[in-house]
């Protein structure tokens, strides 16, 4: 137990400062916002992440948002287990046809008002997979999208800035 | 027994069983062609020799289907092939002999409409509702766009195994899971907290990778291969490029091979760090999760600095690599390794002496060596259950042909074993990276372009090859056939997850439902790599 506490103290706090991004910075990061979140919500959002057909690369970088360097929860942004608790759906991947119904149902289960963020090139435009017998392509082909974060995969920093940009109009 | 003996022995036995084998030599592999009615008999003879089933796939050539299966023992790979007619495509199943062939044959059945006779479970597998029963996406007459409905209906009527009896209940989980992970469906039958049966239903992230690979150029195929499973981008890209290079008769420059080795070992370390944290997190030991995700982040930042991509996507290209590793970068990588070792030496004792972790990880999720062997279980999952198999050692390819390393092995078969094997593999990977860096210094002074990429040569139409590498999850095999004009005719990647997923159904039995997440994490199969 002592070793454990010693390591915690030795590691200290590694969380890095992150400023709320300006619009031109977002643009530089390849982030397009179509709708800001209403003022009433600013300060805290609950996100339900949905992998609708991704290669898992995007998930790895979204998971990284919870590591001590980014610690996205300090901004009141947290990931929830059910769409019924969510304000935002963070969707990755081209939407595979086998996930289309599940994505639609998740969207329906999310209470209004809700926002959809399409993260990654696949979610933004279909990426390497495009539209085919097995893939619906971009998320916007299936549900309305409010924000797009480009990148293959988008870096945690781009994801974090994008999500912050969403809650701070 | 010397290593070539088993093929001679098996050929003898096939001969006594009146099975004619036509032997054809391919670049890097031997192809054995047999009559389709002997397909199962071959498997029966092969398993007597403890030959491992590696992969299975099919291919259409005009009015015929080529049906392939790959087998391995002692680092020697044999590609077995038979040919059936499109009009009535059927042959005896190998699944009653090799359980690992089960889902693979179901995939072939769904994608080609090839009927495997006496298959123990011929329910559909990859097909949900995106195409109908009498359409087969990998046949040549099936258009890439298919004829999808506006909204593909959910796969509601899949015939799951049922359990009956007092107190037995069912828990359906997924496809959308509670965490930030990939989609798939798990169906549990439980009594109280105890899992009586688990059935996996995958295929949700089927993206038609095999179909959209057709007609690509080598460079574009490499990009697609790098997106089969995002955590294995180096592994898959390497396997695909290796197959293409062998088909084209191209040798990768030594320097590029060394850089590929560094990339692959860095991918291994990054994933193991992530998994070790996640395994601890699933039993609520957050200290380890925070420490390991921190180390993983630092590791990925060096990837970004040195190679220009955190996950190392698109660094490997046909013929070599795109990224040079300068002397300054070598120094940075070496410092990083020293730093990581020091951190691990502080974290691991704190974890090792923790009784609550011991309580949850020891003896949980037990996979016996017998079951692991029967399913041909790969990578750290196999090696934690005594399966002493590693392509880097058994069928060494550049740059692993000129280094020393030890394959990590455990035999307890529980979650703790799979945790500690990962730790040992990190240590082995760090030593490998150090050796590769040392050798980088000695790779001549050609021009940079020559050192990093061999010039591409268009392979003859019809040439084929099998690229086999050890990814971080285990052996990856990629089959490639070229058409005319440098175009891909067929690509089949076999992720280790395809072989490993079925053993999750075994190792969760008699565990409690709340331990399922950690059992699952300890195996960490790729959904995307499985569903293609
Ligand atoms: S954007 Fe890139 S990382 Fe994300 S799912 Fe698509 S291919 Fe994978």
Note the topology.
The complex is a heterodimer of chains A (169) and B (532).
Chain A: H1 2-11, H2 23-28, E1 31-33, E2 45-51, H3 57-64, E3 77-79, E4 88-92, H4 97-109, E5 115-119, H5 121-125, E6 147-149, H6 156-167
Parallel strand pairs in A: 2-3, 2-4, 4-5, 5-6
Antiparallel strand pairs in A: 1-6
Chain B: H1 5-16, E1 22-26, E2 29-33, H2 39-48, E3 52-61, E4 64-73, E5 76-85, E6 90-92, H3 101-112, E7 115-117, E8 168-173, E9 185-191, E10 194-201, H4 209-213, H5 218-225, H6 233-248, H7 254-281, H8 286-307, E11 316-317, E12 320-321, H9 327-352, H10 355-361, H11 369-374, H12 379-384, H13 391-394, H14 415-440, H15 448-452, E13 464-470, E14 475-482, E15 488-494, H16 496-507, H17 516-523, H18 527-531
Parallel strand pairs in B: 2-5, 6-7
Antiparallel strand pairs in B: 1-2, 3-4, 4-5, 8-9, 9-10, 11-12, 13-14, 14-15
Bound molecules: iron/sulfur cluster.
Quick description:
The complex is a heterodimer of chains A (about 170) and B (about 525). Chain A is α/β, with parallel strands linked by helices and about 170 residues long. Helix content of chain A is about 30%, strand content about 15%.
Order of neighbouring strands in the sheet with most strands of chain A: 1-6-5-4-2-3
Q: Tell the overall outline of chain B.
A: globular
Largest two-chain interface: A-B, 57 and 64 residues
Percentage of β-strand residues of chain B: 15-25%
Number of helical regions of chain A: 6
Radius of gyration of chain A: 17 Å
Q: What are the secondary-structure elements of chain A, in order, as H or E? A: HHEEHEEHEHEH
Bound molecules: iron/sulfur cluster
Which parts of chain B are unreliable, with pLDDT below 50 for 5 consecutive residues or more? none
What structural class results from the helix and strand content of chain B? alpha+beta
Unreliable spans of chain A are none
The CATH topology of the domain at 215-360 and 392-408 and 415-496 in chain B turns out to be Cytochrome-c3 Hydrogenase, chain B
């Amino acid at each position: 137990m002592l070793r454990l506490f010693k390591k915690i103290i030795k590691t200290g706090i590694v969380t890095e400062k992150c400023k709320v991004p300006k619009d031109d910075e977002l643009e530089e990061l390849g982030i397009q916002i179509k709708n800001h979140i209403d003022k009433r919500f600013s300060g805290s959002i609950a996100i339900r992440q949905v992998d609708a057909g991704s290669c898992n690369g995007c998930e790895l970088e979204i998971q990284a948002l919870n590591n001590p360097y980014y610690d996205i929860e300090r901004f009141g942004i947290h990931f929830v287990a059910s769409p019924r608790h969510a304000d935002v759906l963070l969707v990755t991947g081209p939407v595979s046809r086998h996930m289309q119904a599940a994505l639609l149902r998740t969207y329906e289960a999310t209470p209004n008002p809700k926002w959809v963020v399409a993260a990654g090139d696949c979610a933004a435009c279909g990426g390497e997979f495009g539209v085919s017998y097995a893939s619906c392509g971009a998320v916007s082909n299936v549900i309305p999208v409010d924000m797009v974060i480009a990148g293959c995969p988008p870096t945690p920093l781009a994801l974090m800035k994008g999500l912050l940009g969403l809650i701070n109009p | 027994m010397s290593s070539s003996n088993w093929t001679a022995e098996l050929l003898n036995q096939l001969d006594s069983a009146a099975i004619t084998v036509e032997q054809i030599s391919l670049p890097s592999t031997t192809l054995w062609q047999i009559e389709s009615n002997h397909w199962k008999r071959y498997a029966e003879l092969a398993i007597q020799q403890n030959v491992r089933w590696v992969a299975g796939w099919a291919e259409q050539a005009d009015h015929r289907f080529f049906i392939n299966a790959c087998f391995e023992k002692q680092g020697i790979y044999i590609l077995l092939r038979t040919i059936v007619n499109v009009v009535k495509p059927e042959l005896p199943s190998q699944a009653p002999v090799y359980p690992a062939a089960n889902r693979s044959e179901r995939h072939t059945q769904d994608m080609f409409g090839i009927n495997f006779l006496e298959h123990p479970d011929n329910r559909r597998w990859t097909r949900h509702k995106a195409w109908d029963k009498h359409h087969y996406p990998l046949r040549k007459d099936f258009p890439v766009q298919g004829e999808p409905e506006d909204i593909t209906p959910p796969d509601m009527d899949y015939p799951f195994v049922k359990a009956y009896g007092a107190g037995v209940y069912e828990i359906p989980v997924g496809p959308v899971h509670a965490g930030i992970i990939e989609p798939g469906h798990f169906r549990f039958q439980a009594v109280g907290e105890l899992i009586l049966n688990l059935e996996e239903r995958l295929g949700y992230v089927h993206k038609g990778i095999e179909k959209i690979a057709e007609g690509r150029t080598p460079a574009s195929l490499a990009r697609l291969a790098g997106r089969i499973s995002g955590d294995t981008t180096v592994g898959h890209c390497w396997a695909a490029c290796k197959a293409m290079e062998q088909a084209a008769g191209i040798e990768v420059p030594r320097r590029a091979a060394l850089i590929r080795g560094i990339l692959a070992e860095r991918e291994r370390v990054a994933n193991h760090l992530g998994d070790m944290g996640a395994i601890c997190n699933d039993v609520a030991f957050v200290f380890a999760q925070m420490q390991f995700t921190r180390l993983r982040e630092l590791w990925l930042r060096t990837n970004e600095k040195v190679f220009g991509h955190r996950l190392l996507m698109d660094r490997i290209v046909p013929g070599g690599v795109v990224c040079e590793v300068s002397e300054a970068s070598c120094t940075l990588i070496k410092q990083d390794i020293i730093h990581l070792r020091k951190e691990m030496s502080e974290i691991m004792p704190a974890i090792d002496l923790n009784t609550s972790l011991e309580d949850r990880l020891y003896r949980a999720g037990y996979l016996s060596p017998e079951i692991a062997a029967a399913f041909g279980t790969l990578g750290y999952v196999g090696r934690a259950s005594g399966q002493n198999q590693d392509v880097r050692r058994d069928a060494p390819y550049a740059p692993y042909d000129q280094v020393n390393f030890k394959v990590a092995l455990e035999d307890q078969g529980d979650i703790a074993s799979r945790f500690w094997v990962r730790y040992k593999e990190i240590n082995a990977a760090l030593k490998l990276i150090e050796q590769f860096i040392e050798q980088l210094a000695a790779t001549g002074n050609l021009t940079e372009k020559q050192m990093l990429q061999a010039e591409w040569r268009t392979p003859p139409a019809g040439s084929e090859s099998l690229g086999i590498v050890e990814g971080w999850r285990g052996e990856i095999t990629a089959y490639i056939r070229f058409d005319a004009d440098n175009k891909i005719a067929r690509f089949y990647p076999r992720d280790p997850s395809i072989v490993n997923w079925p053993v999750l159904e075994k190792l969760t039995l008699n565990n409690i439902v709340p331990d399922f997440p950690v059992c699952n994490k300890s195996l960490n199969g790729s959904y995307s790599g499985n569903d293609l």
